[in-house]
Structures are given as structure tokens and as C-alpha cells.
Specification:
Helices cover 13% and strands 34% of the residues. The protein has one domain (2-137): Roll (Pnp Oxidase, Chain A), CATH 2.30.110.10. By secondary structure, the chain is mainly beta. It is globular, with a radius of gyration of 17 Å. A hairpin with a 4-residue loop joins strand 5 and strand 6 (94-106). The protein has helices at residues 16-24, 37-43, 53-56, and strands at residues 2-8, 26-31, 62-63, 70-71, 77-89, 94-106, 127-131, 134-137. The protein has a four-stranded antiparallel sheet with strand order 1-6-5-2, with helices on one face. It has a two-stranded antiparallel ribbon with strand order 3-4.
């Protein structure tokens, strides 16, 4: 499994996240839910490299089990990743990082959709960062039938 994330660059250079993953070749994607939105937003503030954003907002970090990177144990879903590829996007002032998922942590509070390996979106309301202070939350989730091969995944 591969996952991609865009990491914006600051005028002073790469963010700590990018510097750390370049150093270790690893990172964790903490997929947060609506209840962690305020903490997520606060960690995205423009702190200097001497400030530990997680500690600043009262989040504890844990060591990943497979890769050399910390993660937020309160996050409902965590993907431990090794660096697969990095693509510089200078016109967007960002780098796009692709990670190979080495381990997945799911909160026991999350339910799986019966007969699948997918998390039920009714029990997990993930938040996506759009840009700056803008975030996207799930609205109504609709399941539609597909014809053809009978694969409804």
C-alpha cells in the first residue's frame, strides 16, 4: 500500500516533518478524527524548529513499532511509512512525499464494514487539511450499488 502527502515549504526552508523524514527515511500519517481537529490545527501553526509542536499543544507521542518515527497514539488511524519517493513541487512551494505503508494502527473503537477490510465511515469521521486554516470533514456518506463484476468495494 502506498500513501501520498503534500508537505508545504516555509520561506525559511523545509518544515520539521520533511527534514525528519529525509533524515530517517520514515514518517507516520496520523489520520485524525473530528475530536482532534483543534489540536491538529494548533500543531500546524508556524513554529520555529526549536519548538516541539506536539508538546506545545499537549499531545503525547509514541515510537512507531516498525519505522523510525513518532506518532500520535490518540489518532484513530495511524499509517507507519517508509519513504518511497519524494517529488519536489517548487511552483507549489511544497514537496509531495509517497510512503510505503509498513504498519497500520486502528483504534479499537473503529468498526470495520462487514466482510471487508474497510473502516465504517459512520464510526470514523476523518478530517482532511485542505490548505492554511481550511479543513474538510465528511458529509453524508452514501453507499451505491455497482453493476458488472459484482465487486461493491
Amino acid at each position: 500500500m502506498l500513501v501520498g502527502v503534500s508537505i508545504g515549504l516555509r520561506s525559511t526552508g523545509p518544515k520539521d516533518t520533511l527534514r525528519n523524514l529525509r533524515r530517517t527515511g520514515a514518517f507516520c500519517v496520523n489520520v485524525v478524527g473530528e475530536s482532534q481537529l483543534d489540536a491538529m490545527n494548533e500543531t500546524a501553526a508556524d513554529f520555529g524548529p526549536e519548538v516541539d509542536e506536539a508538546s506545545h499543544v499537549g499531545l503525547d507521542l509514541a515510537a512507531a513499532t516498525v519505522v523510525d518515527a513518532p506518532y500520535v497514539p490518540e489518532a484513530p488511524a495511524v499509517l507507519e511509512c517508509s519513504l518511497y519517493r519524494e517529488l519536489e513541487l517548487p511552483e507549489a512551494s511544497a514537496d509531495f512525499v509517497v510512503g510505503r505503508v509498513e504498519a497500520v494502527h486502528l483504534s479499537p473503537e473503529l468498526r470495520m464494514l462487514p466482510g471487508t477490510r474497510y473502516v465504517d465511515p459512520q464510526t470514523f469521521r476523518p478530517v482532511g487539511r485542505l490548505h492554511g486554516r481550511a479543513y474538510g470533514m465528511l458529509g453524508e456518506v452514501r453507499f451505491l450499488h455497482r453493476g458488472g463484476s459484482g465487486d461493491d468495494s
